[in-house]
Fold:
Amino acid sequence: MEKNQICKDAIVSELQKKKVHLFYCLECEELARNIAAESDHITLQSINWRSFADGFPNLFINNAHEIRGQHVAFLASFSSPAVIFEQISVIYLLPRLFVASFTLVLPFFPTGSFERMEEEGDVATAFTMARIVSNIPISRGGPTSVVIYDIHALQERFYFADQVLPLFETGIPLLTKRLQQLPDTENIIVAFPDDGAWKRFHKLLDHYPTVVCTKVREGDKRIVRLKEGNPSGCHVVIVDDLVQSGGTLIECQKVLAAHGAAKVSAYVTHGVFPNSSWERFTHKNNGLEEAFAYFWITDSCPQTVKAIGNKAPFEVLSLAGSIADALQI
Amino acid sequence: MAAISPATATTAASLSLPQFTSSPSSPSYLNFKTATFGNRCVKCGVRSLENQSGHRSLDFLSNGDPISLINPNSSSSPISMAAAASESGSKCSKRVCLFHSDETRDLAERIVAQSDCIELRSINWKKFDDGFPNLFIQNAQGIRGQHVAFLASFSSPAVIFEQLSVIYALPKLFVSSFTLVLPFFPTGTSERMEDEGDVATAFTLARILSNIPASRGGPTSLVTFDIHALQERFYFGDTILPCFESGIPLLKNRLQALPDSDNISIAFPDDGAWKRFHKQLQHYPTIVCNKVRMGDKRIVRIKEGDAEGRHVVIVDDLVQSGGTLIECQKVLAAHGAAKISAYVTHGIFPKSSWKRFKLDTKGDPAEGFSYFWITDSCGLTVKEVMNKPPFEVLSLAGSIASALQV
Structure:
């Protein structure tokens, strides 16, 4: 009897699952395939991405008739300003093709660190990006859902207008799962490079002891110091939402090592790494002790993932499963 | 000289003569100096031409006839060229602070030179390492209560986001009004869905622009020249006020100054161009071409009109590869045209396709063009074709300066 009930529940919950047709930008093809592999309910669709001679996009959405009445999603990556317009053109059109609902999956929301006007004249490009996204037309399913991972500033959730439904996800569960697999899992503590990172993440990681760093002004320089916690003898994992040049992480690693950390690793959701700055972290195999034992990033920034490949200490934790689940919301 | 209505040459006496300027650094330019009298804009055209010996000569417009003064948009502009400007003294109706993108600096400077009412402002355009823009609007507090404009150029998708960030920010800085001047509206040719699945990027761009926030002056005004398809005016929502201008008056002025101005016929490469422009060019004999399907090929034919012995000027809104113009040239030459020239408002010329257009030096219109006029809507092209016959650049500066007074 109980078994029948479990089967029935399983069938019902399967039936309640949404079939989703997933379109994607060219950069994201691998992640899109991984998402589709996670679930029978997600089907990949395709777009012809071409350019006219003047550089403007010449796009065609294949099988546009077949997505009528279907749940549709688009996996985007705004890795540079140049690729925004072509993806936005598709994003603005898909909801209007009589689809049942539309979801934009934008794992990494760029410009996130430029979200303030400190002086009149500052241009907060994060707000420009939020406006552009907020202007996605509604579909028969109502406002477009926008799935974003570890948005840089908590206030940014309010930059979006009511015409879209932002869904803020996080990559941290991927990290905690990975940490549990490590041989020295009992000896792990989490370090935050600044108060901002602590505010963003400490609640998700409260089962680990924490260390908080901070930048202190000394004359002209800004120096990273330990603010709270004791890394001595531990495997310290520095956690932040993104990495650009990597300067902050390197400074933190030095301070933690100086305070006796046995090993230092890092996790960022978004490995932005402009100008191949990830090269500062690779193991050089030159006999010198390596600064970082592990460096975890997700596949939110596909260009970086392609460039890094399998080079130690990097490990890529895929968002595919998390995204596949988010598409069922 | 500065009278406005056709019948009132006598009113000229009551107005002071505007200053004429030559442009030492850009002999291929037609500059229009704007003299403002009260609320009316009066414009006079000046042409400085380099003749064969390299001397520059200052010519006044043909016969000084008031009719030949430029009215940038005779069909729809509220810029009034009504009877005699009765107010004397030059006062600005609107003082405007003009910001601009990197690419449009030259045109912005020309616009500012047209009018005492327009002041150039600047923005720091820098980038972060990740390629995203790091922008700062200088003296943002100084524009409070001022009329503000931004001269944009979306020459490629890559430069849209940085300009859009400024365009979305400026109206919210307590300015009294905001105008976006986008001389060339790109994607204009991608404005239809023939198949379900076509992505009409013109509509994407119109949406993005329709989303510019309102300022204290109400909806943003959008000034654009010779938009590709007449239907595109309806792609914009009511949150924005598009102002559709044309470069044709610049062409008409230039044609009147030619020695063979009475032997000119206008040719349209297709019905689309005829629909867009024939009303502005009614006083010239016209020739209309079209493309006819023969098997797999599409061949340009003359549909109506007679080219024999005429100086034919092919008119269109834009040029890309130039293929259409060259096909028209061949057909017109085969039908006896004496000289062939071309005018397009927007010289896009991707991949330097302007190099296909040679000067006719031997009186053989099948081999070359006598003139190829473009405006300065596409700044990158202007840099490349400057001083290279048959190209001549007609500046939109005067027309934009007037539009900013609307």
